[in-house]
Amino acid sequence: MLESGVHLVSTDEKTGIQALERVHPDQPAAPGQLERREFEYHRHGTQALIANFEVATGQLVSPTVGDTRTEADFVDHIRATVATDPGAGWVFVVDQLNTHKSAGLVQLVAELCAVPDDLGRKGESGILRDMASRKAFLEDGSHRIRFVYTPRHCSWLNQVEIWFSILSRRLLRRASFASTEELKRRILAFIRVFNETLAKPFRWTYIGKPLMA
Asked: Rounded to an integer, what distance in angstroms lies between the CA atom of residue 60 and that of residue 18?
């Protein structure tokens, strides 16, 4: 899709990322003894990461790290993402979270795609009426910017979830952060290094067999 000018990105939020500062330094491993880690830490708050995993390249595009993940945060994130290649097509794979079907998101897509339709009023009429009508608009294949929704309880189908596990293993699990500002800075630095040195498309191994009998 990227070769034809369309970005296919897997998008989701990783919320509640804790800025935990270890009270005592780790004790390094020694002959016959594993590394030791003290259990005490200070909490310095949390951050939310909104990430786009580009399926064709394996890179993270236009990540957002902030204090919240509100409807407005997600709309701003999508606007900033599209702005990285404003003339291209964009397909966002997302889960069924209500902020992914919001009135603000509909208004953004209508604005960026120059949709002339009357959007109606939220809770009353037209495209904005309810979540189902908004979802139908956001899924419209005729729009340059559209959304594809994973089935309920199947967010694992979204490839960005695999990348979140990489972030947890390689950065978050064993790190110590003195503030939310440091946490944000190091997440963004990790993404830059990942894009430069590690990024590649994920190779699916699941071939469609039922997961349960």
From this structure: 21
3-state helix, strand, coil in the chain (%, to 5): 35, 25, 40
Superfamily of domain 2-23+36-183: Ribonuclease H-like superfamily/Ribonuclease H (3.30.420.10)
Q: Give residue-wise pLDDT tens across range 40-90.
A: 678 999 999 999 999 999 999 999 999 999 999 999 999 999 999 999 999
End-to-end Cα distance, the chain: 35
pTM given for the model: 0.87
Q: 80 with 62: CB under 8 angstroms?
A: yes
Residue 116, Cβ density class (10 Å: 0-12 exposed, 13-18 middle, ≥19 buried): exposed
Number of residues that make up the chain? 213
Bridge-based pairing of strands 41-54 and 6-22 is antiparallel
